[in-house]
């Protein structure tokens, strides 16, 4: 089985070398972003594919779609996207690219504030 | 001095009564077998939490311990590293989930918040991405076409995230 370093070539979503088709929105994306970094998620809908097993290491047999569930900020100020596999619930974190959809990123960041589990009025006094 | 010390210790040894029988067991299997001590702030935490049956993090500092592997509760991980709260996620039904990351092996896990979790720590975690307004500013400029949004974006330069509040309200979830 010939495989690249990122996605196995027998995957149905990998047609062209150096590019992949998004498992969610169907956009064909080049695997290298404009600034030379490798990308593993669709810049339009931020969905990814479960190709690496992070618990055991090595390639994963799951090959399912990974949905973005959160953004995280590192100490350096860089943003990461947290992905969750819709089939096996594995979580991964990946750095964002400059051409990622800023609207979806910001929507995930402000989503907790839309439905707070406790009233936020008390924090206005702090 | 040494002589006196030896005599006093000998006397206590002679008059020491046997230790009382202990009914409560503090060790494994005792009445505190469901409790844990936070690795970060050393708070003693009971596993009986309001709102959740699967508490795995400290309600004070939200830190956790890397003991589970794939399935929550399997206790199969050999890492035992400290897991810090990384970010907050929301389930489709509105439940908040804390995303933890192991400080020694970078493994990521998610857990629901409990009813007695520190609200200030939770809100600080949520506000972490919004503290830096440059991405919010860039996004509002990208949205572009509506003139009032662009107006808010240009007005919002150099202000805090509170200045972006009206603009963020206008963002509606799209198809994805």
TrEMBL record, chain A:
Residues 19-106 form the RNHCP domain. Pfam families: RNHCP. This is RNHCP domain-containing protein. It comes from Streptomyces spongiae. The lineage of its organism: Bacteria, Bacillati, Actinomycetota, Actinomycetes, Kitasatosporales.
From TrEMBL, chain B:
It comes from Streptomyces spongiae. Residues 1-29 are annotated as: Disordered. InterPro entries: RNHCP. This is RNHCP domain-containing protein. Residues 11-20 have a biased composition (Basic residues). Residues 34-122 form the RNHCP domain. It comes from the Bacteria. Pfam families: RNHCP. Residues 1-10 have a biased composition (Low complexity).
């Amino acid at each position: 089985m010939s495989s690249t370093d990122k996605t196995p070539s027998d995957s149905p979503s990998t047609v062209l070398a150096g590019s992949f088709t998004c498992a969610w929105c169907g956009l064909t994306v080049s695997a290298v972003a404009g600034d030379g970094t490798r990308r593993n998620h669709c810049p339009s809908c931020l969905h990814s594919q479960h190709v690496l097993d992070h618990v055991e290491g090595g390639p994963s047999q799951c090959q399912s779609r990974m949905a973005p569930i959160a953004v995280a900020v590192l100490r350096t100020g860089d943003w990461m996207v947290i992905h969750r596999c819709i089939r096996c619930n594995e979580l991964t974190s990946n750095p964002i690219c400059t051409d990622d959809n800023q609207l979806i990123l910001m929507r995930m960041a402000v989503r907790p504030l839309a439905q707070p589990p406790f009233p936020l009025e008390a924090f206005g006094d702090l | 001095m040494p002589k006196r010390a030896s005599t006093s210790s000998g006397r206590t040894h002679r008059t020491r009564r046997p230790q009382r029988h202990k009914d409560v067991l503090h060790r494994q299997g005792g009445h505190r077998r469901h409790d844990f001590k936070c690795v970060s702030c050393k708070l003693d935490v009971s596993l009986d939490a309001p709102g959740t049956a699967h508490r795995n993090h400290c309600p004070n500092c939200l830190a956790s311990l890397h003991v589970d592997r794939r399935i929550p509760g399997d206790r199969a991980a050999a890492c035992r590293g400290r897991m810090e709260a990384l970010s907050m996620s929301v389930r489709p039904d509105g439940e908040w989930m804390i995303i933890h990351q192991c400080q020694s092996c970078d493994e990521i896990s998610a857990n629901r918040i409990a009813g007695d979790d520190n609200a200030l720590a939770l809100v600080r975690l949520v506000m972490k991405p919004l503290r830096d307004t440059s991405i919010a500013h860039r996004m509002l400029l990208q949205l572009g076409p509506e003139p009032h949004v662009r107006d808010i974006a240009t007005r919002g330069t150099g202000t805090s995230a509170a200045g972006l509040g009206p603009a963020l309200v206008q963002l509606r979830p799209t198809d994805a």
